Amino acid sequence: MSDFQLNQFTAIDAAPDQSLYIAALEAFDTVPELQELKVQAMEIASIGSSGRILDVGCGFGLETLRLARSAVPDGHVAGIDKSAAFIEEANIRAKKAGLDIDFRPGVAEQLPFDDSSFDYVRAERIICYLEDPEAAVKEMARVARPGGHLAFIEPDFTSNNINLPDRALVKRTLDFEARSAVATNWMPGRLYSIVKRLKLNNIRSFTRLLVFPDDLAAGYFSMIGNNALKADEINETECATWQEGIEELRASGELFASIGYVLLTAELPET
Predict the structure, then answer these.
(1) Which residues on neighbouring strands pair with residue 207, listed in sequence order?
(2) pTM here?
């Protein structure tokens, strides 16, 4: 993951190796706590097999394909993503799975759908990357029908953590990651304010501490250290301490890395 940059997700088509990002997303998707939030969002929305669902920032369709399987035979599922490469990959995967999904390139701030088109509109790990998250949330509310449901699953990057013993080094290194990786590193709180201002109903929030699988934790947090070194946030000695500490914890089976996630759900007013 040495060439991996989280902020590259805002321009993934320019990434030199998109397979790194696909592999990272697939690995992170296996985290049980993340899956719990996804299931909880669907249970709250109570979308039947005839529901109309939109996945905003669908990437290459990991969750969209699952949603489409739940909507068989009478439902309609659409996915939109800024990356043309991801949309192409999503269409390939949908075809292989025998699923009819309306994948389109586009941006969350200008959704190419009519008003009140969907019963359930979701976004996962997308809003935190946007310079204008309020525009995206308003668009999601616009395309949801009266009484429809919105769901957002977003990280709190200020909660990123790893159990390296030099806590001062951990703080400086992870503070840099929080500042540089996404547009809003305290997104759950900002998102809550945006949703409240839209006067939506039944606003609810649920939290999970996501624990990274060992391989993903080692790769991701090693990358964080290298990025901090390149930006002169830490020096070479500190970076060596960082990397050696990760390898030692991994070798002993003691590596523990985590980040806090929030599921926020809301309903559109009936009228």
Answers:
(1) 262
(2) 0.94
Mean pLDDT within 25-47: 94
CA 135 to CA 69: how far, in whole Å? 30
Nearest one of 111, 147, 224 to 123, comparing CA atoms: 111
The per-residue pLDDT for range 4-19, each reduced to its tens digit, is: 778 778 888 888 888 8
Q: What is the mean pLDDT of residues 37-43?
A: 95
Strand pairing category for 118-124 and 144-162: parallel
Tell me the CA distances in angstroms from 238 to 3, 167, 217, one per residue in order: 20, 12, 19
The one-character DSSP state at 10 is: G
pLDDT in tens, 102-146: 999 999 999 999 999 999 999 999 999 999 999 999 999 999 999
Contacts of 240 (CB under 8 A, 6+ apart): none
Residue 17 identity: D
Helices (H), 98-235: 133-143, 167-181, 187-197, 214-230
In angstroms, the CA 270 to CA 194 distance is 20
In degrees and rounded to multiples of 5, residue 221 shows phi and psi of -75, -25
CB 33, CB 210: distance < 8 Å: yes
